[in-house]
Specification:
There is one protein chain. By secondary structure, this protein is of the alpha/beta class. It folds into 5 domains: 36-180 and 588-669, Rossmann fold, CATH 3.40.50; 223-448, Isoleucyl-tRNA Synthetase, domain 2 (Alpha-Beta Complex); 517-574, no CATH class; 690-863, Isoleucyl-tRNA Synthetase, Domain 1 (Orthogonal Bundle); 889-995, hypothetical protein PF0899 fold (2-Layer Sandwich), CATH 3.30.2320. Helix content is 38%, strand content 18%. The chain has 29 helices and 35 strands. A hairpin with a 6-residue loop joins strand 34 (997-998) and strand 35. The protein is elongated. Mean pLDDT is 88; it is low at 1-8, 124-131, 240-244 and 979-983. Keywords: Aminoacyl-tRNA synthetase, ATP-binding, Ligase, Nucleotide-binding, Protein biosynthesis. Residues 50-702 form the Aminoacyl-tRNA synthetase class Ia domain. InterPro entries: aa-tRNA-synth_I_CS, aa-tRNA-synth_Ia, Anticodon_Ile_BEm, Ile-tRNA-ligase, Ile-tRNA-ligase_type1, Ile-tRNA_ligase, M/V/L/I-tRNA-synth_anticd-bd, Rossmann-like_a/b/a_fold. Residues 16-39, 657-678 are annotated as: Disordered.
Length: 1028
């Protein structure tokens, strides 16, 4: 038995009497042997368990289907992990989650990839040559290849999503190529037909020569630096509507009621037009003017020119200066007369290429802000031109084929030439030869591109199927007002897309898709498209159990009985539906699920989905198509909450692109890249925590440095949990189950801080503000636990007796912190959270009881209640909370002067000192410093062996004067707030060498004599030596 230590006493003698942390929780994550089974448990098993045990009505996050055309990229990781964090949080809150992952399996990207693979393996001279038109291939062959490509991509993507820890039943997914899905889609189409919302029209649509199909506006992206060759072209006016020869300027002027000078009476008269698409000039059918604009007949005067020709031109008065500048640097306009646009209507001109007579027409879209004020009008290549001509009975003309090449209708010189390449230049060359090309100019402007092939598109008149959106706009815009948007600004973006869209081109000229179920009369080419016909076609497809039957069965199979034996013959339509119509009808999946809930006497939830979450590009895509089809069929919006995330950028803020070599593969983050030195394996939790750390409502940055910093945070979380597990033991469970509250003021403060953390983090999870959850967790970990609480409690945990109330109080709090910590991490770093949970449960099994209904619950924190009832009875008053803030502020200041003394070589450890704390009086009467705990605990808090609080200024002055060499550092007066300190809130600190001796066991300077145990340690060691 030792009352005091001998001169040879060393700390090692007492090492085995210390209660140092012990745990088998590893410092680094270790891939368990049962990794595959654990991965399944963390995804499928939890999902299936919660569907059986948690409360209804279910929380529905409806998955927007990604394209099944390749590997998942970092943008997919951002999207799916955000969704998973939402779902895991809802499960942890005790609510059943309905989440069915989906894939968009149709469309051009998949078909193009399939054909590219076919081309690589096709011998020369076979059916598919390098430049062959893929639309001419046997559609059955194309569909087989595309299906195979899509299913292969689905299998690979599904495996990756499980690796990312996405919670779902991976045996129950949806694919837009599934028969039941396609039948529901066809039924939506049939309903819209019955409501008069579907029609067919030959008019200009956006056409992609690179894809050889029509595109909707939602499938366009605009390139701001597109270069076009613009041209100023003159068209000879012919005079009155009965004149067939070119009119002189004087003749035409008299027809318009104005006179010209005699010297120009015999001059020819030309209308000047400007176009940025010279290739459309063969399709010209009119020149448009604005009836209310002023137009001038003018002669371009060039004093430097010796040309004898003196033509007269017609252009908008407001455009003369710009027009003449294009004609030459020294050209000025000599205005001869002015007329209004209405006067020009009906005037004929000679087509600049064919010479045929055509008329000047009126159009409100003509302005005086660009060009010449006279607009070359090609109704086969522009919607505004088409609508202006349609009202006058002028048909659309488009001598361009699906490959974007001129047809024979454009003339032998142009036939076969690409309108976007050599065709346009050939048109200009012909105009120049005929003297009709006055000037050209290369301009840079915004131009639409196919967002898949990244190639420019054209407008081309073709027969297409459209959805009329005009009657859907008002109810859709009204419905949007009731949607909760994250961020709020995204609502306005969706509204703009909906408000500016009058119709939707839903037909595509490709084989891989859902057929537009229409029959065409072979004699008239009129479509047979009504509700009963579509219902019959759907019934046939359902009976044959394959949409492929549209391409494999004879047309007679699909002809409704009412149209059989009538002498009419039909052909099957070859168009397929826009893939946005495919994915946009995915809400039909939820109707049966919600109907089943209603049958189970649960409250009917409206809208169908609680959350739609996708990238910001989906305002023009899936968000919009889902909204419009749902409004058309049900009259309701399909989502309650619309969440939008940005795009992923590299460390310099550039958009990620394989061509730039700046991409980061999600699986390389998890498993490491080929070069593990440059791309180390960080694990799934690092990838997920990166997602949580971002402000996803904006574009987000990812780089190797970013990931390395996040990985360090994951390690910090792990080490924090390991410290807590190492300081708990089997007896902790009994303490917690007894309902005992913490006795230490510090511990009660820690528990109050924990309650505040839960409140804040819960609010941020509810708001889907995961970056703020991340901030709360990292701040609590670093600023409160590591830098404050853990540093303070080590002494009591390691050196006090195992049954010390002081130590047990802290163990109770550590249990609660660990339990909460695990829950708050659970939706984000799920692997780490569940690893902590399993070790915590093994250590304190009675704190995680299993009832008969919970025996099947997977070993996951998600299957336990969210920590809402925590530390009842330990809430801090405002005054007490302020006192603790004062203590922490004093501690910060004490750390500064301790560091100063350390730098001056006065001390090695803070335990060597006595801290003197002075609170000056406030005014005429003293205002004693009010602190929320004892001086003994304050010593622990300030990490010193002795503490003395001084209130008398004279005593303080005496202590400073007597300090001598033992007084190591003095702070200035420090403002630390008013909590307990009167109106000024000032303290002054000083540190001096402790007057007591170092205890060889706890190292605090609390021993009366050298090498002797302090009173506390002496008692602990005595009891330890006499233990049974």
């Amino acid at each position: 038995m030792l009352a005091t230590a001998t001169a040879t006493t060393t700390s090692k003698q007492f090492h085995n009497t210390l209660l140092l942390p012990h745990t088998d929780f590893p410092q680094r994550p270790q891939r368990p042997k049962d990794h595959v089974q654990r991965q399944t448990q963390l995804t499928q098993a939890i999902y299936r368990w919660q569907k059986q045990h948690l409360a209804e009505p279910a929380f529905v996050l409806h998955d927007g289907p990604p394209y099944a055309n390749g590997d998942l990229h970092i943008g997919h990781a951002l999207n799916r992990i955000l969704k998973d964090m939402i779902n895991r949080y809802q499960v942890h809150r005790g609510r059943k989650v309905h989440y069915v992952p989906g894939w968009d399996c149709h469309g051009l990207p998949i078909e193009v990839k399939a054909l590219a693979q076919l081309r690589q393996h096709t011998p020369h001279g076979s059916e598919l040559e390098a430049e062959a038109d893929p639309t001419a291939l046997d559609p059955r062959h194309v569909r087989t290849l595309a299906r195979r490509t899509a299913l292969k991509a689905v299998a690979k993507q599904r495996q990756d999503l499980q690796t990312w820890g996405v919670l779902a039943d991976w045996d129950d997914c949806y694919r837009t190529l599934d028969l039941d899905y396609q039948i529901r889609q066809l039924e939506v189409f049939g309903t819209m037909v019955a409501k008069g919302l579907i029609y067919r029209r030959t008019r200009p649509v956006y056409w992609s020569p690179s894809s050889r199909t029509a595109l909707a506006e939602a499938e366009l992206e605009y390139k701001e630096d597109h270069r076009s060759e613009s041209a100023y072209v003159r068209c000879a006016l012919s005079g009155t509507t009965t004149t067939t020869t070119t009119a002189t300027a004087a003749e035409q002027a008299r027809a318009w009621g104005v006179d010209l000078p005699a010297d120009l009476a015999a001059s020819p008269l030309y209308a000047l037009v400007w176009t940025t698409t010279p290739w459309t000039l063969p399709a010209n059918r009119a020149i448009a003017v604005h009836p209310k604009l002023a137009y001038a007949l003018f002669e371009p005067v060039d004093e430097t020119s010796d040309s004898r020709e003196r033509p007269v031109y017609l252009a908008a008065t407001a455009r003369l200066a710009e027009v003449c500048a294009q004609l030459g640097p020294s050209v000025t306009p000599r205005v001869l007369a002015t007329v209004t646009g209405s006067t020009l209507l009906g005037t004929q001109y000679h087509h600049p290429i064919t010479g045929q007579l055509q008329s000047v027409i009126a159009a409100d879209y003509v302005t005086e802000h660009s060009g010449t004020g006279l607009v070359h009008t090609a109704p086969g290549h522009g919607l505004e031109d088409y609508e202006a001509c349609l009202a006058l009975g002028i048909p659309a003309f488009s001598p361009v084929n699906g490959a974007g090449r001129f047809t024979a209708e454009a003339g032998s010189l142009l036939e076969g030439k690409s309108v976007l390449e050599d065709g346009g230049q050939t048109v200009l060359d012909g105009l120049k030869q005929r003297g009709l090309l006055l000037a050209t100019q290369t301009i840079t402007h915004s131009y639409p591109y196919d967002w898949r092939t990244k190639q420019p598109v054209i407008q081309r008149a073709t027969p297409q199927w459209f959805a009329d959106l005009s009657s859907l706009q008002a109810p859709a815009l009204k419905a949007i007002q009731g949607v909760q948007a994250v961020p709020e600004s995204s609502t306005a973006r969706l509204e703009r897309y909906v408000a500016n869209r009058k119709e939707w081109c839903i037909s595509r000229q490709r084989a891989w898709g859902v057929p537009i179920p229409v029959l065409y009369d072979m004699a008239t080419d009129e479509p047979l498209c009504d509700a009963s016909t579509i219902a019959h076609i759907i019934s046939v497809i359902r009976r044959l159990e394959s949409v492929d039957s549209w391409w494999t069965q004879p047309v007679e199979v699909f002809v409704p009985p009412a149209h059989q034996n009538t002498g009419r013959t039909f052909r099957l339509g070859s168009d397929t539906m826009d893939v946005w119509f495919d994915s946009g009808t995915s809400w039909t999946l939820l109707q049966a699920f919600r109907a089943n809930e209603a049958q189970q006497k649960q409250s009917v939830s409206e809208p169908l989905a609680d959350v739609y979450l996708e990238g910001s590009d989906q305002h023009r895509g899936w968000f919009q198509s889902s909204l419009l089809t749902s409004i058309a069929v049900t009259g309701r919006v399909p989502f309650r909450r619309l969440v939008t995330h940005g795009f992923t950028l590299d460390g310099t803020g550039r958009k990620m692109s394989k061509s730039l070599g700046n991409t980061m593969e999600p699986n390389h983050v998890i498993q490491g890249g080929p070069d593990k030195t440059r791309e180390p394996a960080y694990g799934t939790d690092t990838l997920r925590l990166w997602v949580a750390s971002t402000d996803y409502t904006r574009d987000v940055v990812i780089s190797p440095d970013t990931i390395a910093r996040v990985a360090e945070t994951v390690r910090k979380f792990r080490h924090t949990a390991r410290f807590m597990l190492g300081n708990l033991d089997a007896g902790t469970a009994d303490l917690v189950r007894s309902g005992q509250l913490p006795t230490s003021p510090l511990d009660r403060y820690a528990l109050a801080e924990l309650r505040s953390l839960v409140t804040a983090v819960t609010a941020e999870y509810d708001a889907l503000a995961f970056n703020k959850v991340f901030q709360h967790l990292t701040n609590f970990t670093n600023a409160f636990l590591s830098a404050f609480y853990f540093e303070i409690i080590k002494d009591r945990l390691y050196t006090e007796a195992v049954d010390s109330p002081h130590r047990q109080s802290t163990q109770i709090v550590l249990h609660h912190i660990l339990r909460v910590y695990t829950s708050l991490l659970g939706p984000i770093t799920h692997e780490l959270a569940d690893e902590i949970f399993r070790h915590h449960r093994a250590l304190c099994p009675t704190l995680f009881p299993s009832s008969s209904s919970e025996e099947e619950a997977p070993a996951s924190v998600l299957c336990t209640p969210w920590p809402t009832q925590l530390g009842e009875g330990v809430a801090l008053s405002a005054e007490l909370a302020q006192q603790w803030q004062t203590v922490r502020r004093i501690r910060e200041e004490s750390m500064l002067i301790l560091e100063q003394a350390r730098r001056n070589k006065h001390l090695a450890r803070s335990l060597e000192v006595e801290l003197l704390l002075f609170s000056p009086p406030q005014g005429s009467s003293p205002s004693p410093l009010v602190l929320p705990t004892t001086e003994e605990e304050l010593c622990e808090i300030f990490l010193v062996s002795n503490l003395r609080v001084v209130e008398d200024p004279q005593e303080w002055s005496r202590l400073l004067a007597e300090g001598g060499d033992a007084l190591w550092a003095v702070s200035p007066l420090v403002d630390i707030g008013t909590g307990g300190l009167g109106p000024k809130g000032q303290v002054q600190l000083a540190i001096r060498k402790s007057r007591q001796h170092k205890c060889p066991r706890c190292w605090r300077y609390c021993s009366a004599t050298a090498d002797a145990l302090c009173t506390r340690c002496d008692t602990v060691v005595r009891n330890w030596e006499t233990r049974p």
